[in-house]
Amino acid sequence: VAAAEPVPERRSLLAAALPFTQALLAQVGRTLARAQAALAWPEGTPAVSSPPPPPPPCAPLSDADLRSYLGPGGRLLRPQDLRLHVFHGGVEPGLRKVVWRYLLNVFPAGLTGQERLSHLRLKAAEYSSLKVALAARAAPAELAQVAAAVRKDVVRTDRAHPYFGGPEEGHPHLAALQALLTTFALGHPRLSYCQGMSDVAAPLLAVLDDEAQAFLCFC
């Protein structure tokens, strides 16, 4: 378009655009200068530092390892170190029942071993009351809808595992999984129950073998 304009008009357009162009180029120059300053390395420093070495292989957390993280009275003194150990090495299967409750923040910080047992008893009583109260408060249609959605997944979750194997009718572990998930759904109406929650709750229940504690860990 500028080429088709008369010469005087074209010159006036260029003159009007010149300050903007100069300002833009100046800004680009400042930006490049900042980038060069940011990327400039002190003399003798390599431009790319070598990555840190990977952590050494770590054996699964053992009972002796767990005790090393506990202080007087059984207080957990080094929770971050415990988590890092589990992250890098896992947990011996026999300790999962104990360690998972630490990892899933069931206990407030600083409790002794005796205080943790009291805390679990208190939470178990609270869960029993909550389960009854939520079932009584829910409308029959809502309760039936939630229970049906949960039941559909419960009867097909980890049925090959010995803990959940066997006939459906009267199966105590299937009933516990059903109650756990139904209580959670009724207590969290916005979230309710979503397919796949049973896959998270089932291993918790199978390892802890306690409905109330599995509920706490699931939450």
Helices, by number, come to 9
Mean pLDDT: 87
In one word, what is the shape? extended
CATH H-level superfamily title of the largest domain:
putative rabgap domain of human tbc1 domain family member 14 like domains
Might you state the CATH topology name of the largest domain? Helicase, Ruva Protein, domain 3
Q: What is the chains' assembly state?
A: single chain
Protein name: TBC25 protein
Keywords: GTPase activation
Pfam family, one: RabGAP-TBC
Domain Rab-GAP TBC: 90-219
Word description of this protein:
The protein is mostly helical. The protein has 2 domains: 49 residues, no CATH class; 106 residues, Helicase, Ruva Protein, domain 3 (Orthogonal Bundle). Helix 5 crosses helix 7 and helix 7 packs across helix 8. It is extended and about 90 Å long. The protein starts with 6 loop residues before the first helix and ends with a helix. The mean pLDDT is 87.
